[in-house]
Amino acid sequence: MSGVGEWDEIDDDLEGHLEDELDDDLDDDLDDEDTPAARAPASAARSQDDAVTSALTAALAGDALRQGVAEAVTRAVGARLDALARDAVKRALSDDVLDELREAAEQAVESELTGQGTSQGASKVEAEPQRQYDSVVDFVTDFLAPTYGRALSSSRIWCPQWWSHAEAIYRLDALWRSWEHLRMDAATGSSVWLRDHADHHMAVLMSDSGPFKGCSPEKGHRERDPDNDWSTLPLAPPPPGLFG
Asked: Looking at CB atoms within 10 Å, which of 15, 114, 183, 235 has the fewest?
C-alpha cells in the first residue's frame, strides 16, 4: 500500500486516538461536575483571586489536552511509519538480494580465515614509493658524484674504486636510502639530507684518516698494507659467560 491509501490509514488511526482522548477528558469533566463540591452552592464571598485561579486552571487543562493530542498523533504516525518501513525492507530483500549478501559474507569469512584480507591490507599500507635509483651504484654514479664535487688533495681523498671499501659501501648505501626517503619531502627534505647525512658521511669518507686513505684519483685504489694499517679493527674473543 502506498500514496493516498497509506495516509487514509494514518488519518483513521489519528481520528481513533483523538476520539479516545476526547472521550476520556469528557468523562473526567462529567465526574468532576457530579462531585458534592460541584453541587454545593457557590459562596457569595468568593473573591477576585478565585476567579483568576479558575481561569489559570482552565488554561492548564487546555495545555494538557493539547499535549495529549500531540502525543497521540506522534504515537499513531510512528506506529504507521514503522509498519511501512518493515514492509519496504521485506519487499527489498528478494531471493536474489539474499543470495548476493550470503555469497559476500562467505567470501569475507574465507578471506579472513586464509589471511588474504589482512595481508592485502597490510601490503597497501606498507607499500614504499618507487625509488628513483635502482642501486647504490646508480645513485653514486648518476647523482652523488656530479652533485657533490670537491677539489681533491692529500687531506680530501676519494677512491675511484669506492666499492672496494666495505665502510664506503655501507656509508654510501645509507646516503642513497636516506636520499630516496627524504626526496619525498618537497619542503625541507633536501636540506635535511645535505645537513644530517651527506655532509657528515662524505666528510668521514674523504678524510685523510678515512677509508680512502692512500687512494687517489691519479693512482686509483691502493690495497692496505696489513703491517702498517688495519683493514679491519683488531678483535679479541670475549671471556666466556660475559654475554650470557
From this structure: 235
Helix (H) or strand (E) holding 112: helix 95-114
| Cell numbers standing for residue 228 | 702498517
DSSP category for residue 68: H
Cell of 50: 478565585
pTM of the model: 0.47
Give the model's confidence band at 83: pLDDT under 50 very low, under 70 low, under 90 confident, else very high.
confident
Query: Count of alpha carbons within 13 Å of 129, Cβ hemisphere only?
Result: 10
Q: How far apart are CA 163 and CA 209, in angstroms?
A: 18
Look up residue 11 and give its three cell numbers: 488519518
3-class SS of residue 220: strand
pLDDT classification of 198: cutoffs 50, 70, 90: very high
**Whether residue 151 has pLDDT greater than 90:** no
Give me the residue label for grid cell 656530479.
146
* Cell 555469497 sits on residue: 103
Q: Which residues pair with 207 in a beta bridge?
A: 156
Q: Are the beta carbons of 216 and 162 closer than 8 angstroms?
A: no
